[in-house]
Amino acid sequence: MSRVEGGSPERAAQQAEERREAAARLRAVHAELLARTPESAVQPRLEPVRQVLELLGDPQRAYPVIHLTGTNGKTSTSRFAERLLREMNLRTGRFTSPHLSSVTERISIDGEPISDEAFVAVHEDVAPYLAIVDGRLRQDGQVPLTYFEALAVLAFAAFADAPVDVAVVEVGVGGTWDATNVADATVAVVTPISLDHTELLGDTVEEIAETKSGIFTEGCAVVLAQQPVEAAQVLLRRAVEVGATVAREGLEFGVTSRVVAVGGQVLELQGIGGTTYSDVLLTAFGEHQGHNAAVALAAVEAFLGGEGLEPDVVRAAYADVTTPGRLEVVRRSPVVLVDAAHNTGGAQSLVAALEDSFEYTRLVGVVAVLEGKDALGMLEVLEPVLDEVVITRSSSPRAMEVDDLADIALDIFGGDLGERVHVAERLDEALQVAVDRSESEAPGGLGAGVLVTGSITLVGDARTLLRAPTAR
To answer: Shortest CA distance to 191 belongs to which of 343, 334, 319?
Structure first.
């Protein structure tokens, strides 16, 4: 037998080198994608993405799609639905955004992020066709395919190559003109709508709902989370126009009971087919996650034609589901929680979940916010549950300046800088200040906690710094 076989040190070294090479190729490919127009500079259009996919043979039509939009809860609901489908032995694709640590997290197959090698390979397959459409766009004086548009193309192609039995696809922004809307939804899901991305979607929930209803396709099944009345009216009108069947949380399905439990919560859910699912342990915190779980279950039932699932399937899936970056404990003693809330609605759900599922004698926040977000609204929501806050910035080029955010925090938390509000330009420094402040008046550190929130990028940075498990 050769010494490089059978798990020898030489083979291990070779595998490590192969992983390093794959990671280097991924970094190069991601840099190429990042050189495109960033996803924050949204291009409200579909035709360029359609053109690339047509050149590829329309991979988005090779499998049914459960398509999700809404303001908050899209990623968690996507994860819950995808986990249910896998428990039924279906091969799944999942496209969500943004990512926490690695771009590969956005494209998952069978519940695992696509490998570095597979990401590079699908990009190599797709790149010539991206270049063709980029050329056409430049000739017409338009912006070439954006970062997000290119990633959506990669996801649809990767799912077809796998191949998957069903894809769970989260929109980037809005619905009607989002790059993912080149797919025809078998099931269209709308999580709760509130004000966010108003510069793109409109200043009222009615306008936002109108754009999000653009994912409804002729004859599809529509699943609606609880909505503001104004949004519900728009969504229902659009559903009637396309001849969709509709299931509404609180009417056709919902959470019938909920008890906080160690590691999450125990739910009783009512499905759209009339099935009752009792004693369902959901390993996610907060009442809002219980609602997300009900919506995801309804979406899967609708995908199956309205039939109920085996209750044991639901129990097994939800006991195993993961929600990285969503009220996730990434360190203990003191406990450090990270949560990706980045708008006022998300902050409200976060605060309710904290009060519902956690007890602290002293909780200190680490907060960074992106430019254009409602920093004032988020900090106003967070202030009652935070004893102190450390203002910092994430690695995003769109991060709000620390001094500007600190000024807002001082207006809300009161006092002088160094009392309830602290500043640290670097995240590692901010975390250390927060840990010290949380333990300063908690005897032996008991009951001390740190909450990192305000930006998805910040949460990703914190997870990396604290060596949290890879998001999957």
So the answer is: 343
Cα 30 to Cα 17: distance, rounded to the nearest angstrom:
20
Q: pLDDT (tens digit, 9 = 90+) per residue, 31-64?
A: 999 999 998 888 999 999 999 999 999 999 999 9
The 10 Å Cβ neighbour count of residue 141 is 6
Taking the C-alpha atoms of residue 270 and residue 285, their distance in angstroms, rounded to an integer, is 20
Please give the distance of CA 161 from its chain centroid, rounded to a whole number: 24
**DSSP secondary structure code for residue 180 in this structure:** G
Of the candidates 101, 35, 63, the one whose C-alpha atom is nearest the C-alpha of residue 328 is 101
Closest CA to 285 of 222, 354, 225, 360: 354
SS3 call for 322: coil
Q: Residue 320: which of 148, 103, 43, 80 has the closest Cα?
A: 80
Single-letter amino acid code for the residue at 266: V
| Interatomic CA distance for residues 209 and 397, integer angstroms | 29
| pLDDT tens readout for residues 273-290 | 899 999 999 999 999 999
3-state secondary structure at position 417: strand
**206 exposed, middle or buried (CB, 10 Å; 0-12, 13-18, 19+)?**
middle
245-248 and 254-261 strand pairing: unpaired
Tokens 């991305």 found at: 197
**Helix 74-87 and helix 311-320, axial crossing angle in degrees, nearest 10:** 130
Mind giving me the DSSP string for 282-311?
A: ESS-SHHHHHHHHHHHHHHHHHTTSPPPPH
φ/ψ of residue 418, rounded to 5: 100, -10
Quote the Cα angle for 448-287-92, to 5°.
105
Q: How far is CA 333 from CA 31, 122, 296, 435, 438, in A?
A: 37, 42, 34, 9, 11
Q: What are the φ/ψ torsions at residue 188 (nearest 5 degrees)?
A: -110, 125
| 73 pLDDT more than 60 | yes
CA angle 177/77/104 to nearest 5° reads: 70
Which spans in 166-222 are helix H? 198-201, 205-212
Among residues 324, 334, 322, the alpha carbon closest in space to that of 451 is found at 334
The partner residues of 363 in beta bridges, in order of sequence, read 449
Total-model pTM? 0.91
How far, CA to CA in Å, does 140 sit from each of 135, 137, 143, 457? 9, 5, 9, 34
Encode pLDDT of 390-446 as tens digits.
Answer: 999 999 999 999 999 999 999 999 999 999 999 999 999 999 999 999 988 766 566
Q: How far apart are CA 126 and CA 51, in angstroms?
A: 12
Termini Cα distance of the chain: 37
Q: Are 183 and 65 spatial neighbours (Cβ–Cβ below 8 Å)?
A: yes
